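Closing statement on the zinc ion sub-project.
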Amino acid sequence: MQFDVTILGSNGAVAAHNRYPSSQIVNYNGRHFMVDCGEGSQFRMNTFGVKWSKLDHIFISHLHGDHYYGLIGLLTTFNLHWRETELNIYCPPPLEEIIKLNFKHSKTELRYQIKFRHTRAEGTETIYEDELLSIHTFPLLHRLPTTGFLFKEKQHHRKIIPSKIEEYQIPYELIKKIKRGEDFVLPTGHIISNAELTTAPSPPRSYAYCSDTSFSIETVNYVSGVNLLYHEATFMEEHAVRAAETYHTTSVQAAQVAEQAKAGQLLLGHFSARYDNLEPLAKESQSIFPNSHLAVEGKTFQVV
Ligand SMILES: [Zn+2]
Ligand SMILES: [Zn+2]
């Protein structure tokens, strides 16, 4: 099952170095989930060949402009493309008012419905669920109410061994039940155990997005054991004081979160405009958490 993350924007609030502000696409089994929508996100989708038609869910972490200023443009373009499918936006409550005010004063009548789901920056909450995936919010420590997002794959069914279907002449209509753990009963009454017919599914995978935040030990609990962790790393460690003042994180602190959470892989992003070359920032993180990578725009990272 496809589960990956494509980076559309990786920069912090100040435009610099041809990097775009925060936005990414989580692709789960062909379904696209946008996480944050900084200015220019729709152009990045075009550049990187992300299909518009598959995007029905947008998640906004907080209301600093570098995380949602691309949204009005994207929603307008959807309208100009004759979108009719309902769009779901998961966001802090005031964003609904901001969007509606924009369309009110531009006298724009959308052809599609927007369903707003308000997030809360306290505790955790399940905000999306289907048969394969659930998405949860968790609080971060920033200057505005801010949530992270945790994408959790559900446990897959057991895998049936193809040769056993042939061997025991298992009818097609019973395969689903066997995948769910049932035994198979032969016409003679003899029971073939599920363990003989199936193999265990791969363990469920997870991805956590930690938007703007101070270093917080609480975060470790929320993202514990994720396969892939995106964590902001606005500053290098030499600017740790500035990071604390502005409620941001250093690359070393991001690595500490990944290490303590026992994450599989760390993506660093939301880079300060003061850094053109980001390699030293990556190296600093790798000295603590070796499997650290820069969230390079246009790059797709597998959740494995
Ligand atoms: Zn930001
Ligand atoms: Zn912010």
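The chain is about 25% helix and 25% strand. With this model delivered, the sub-project is considered complete and its resources will be redirected to Aim 3.
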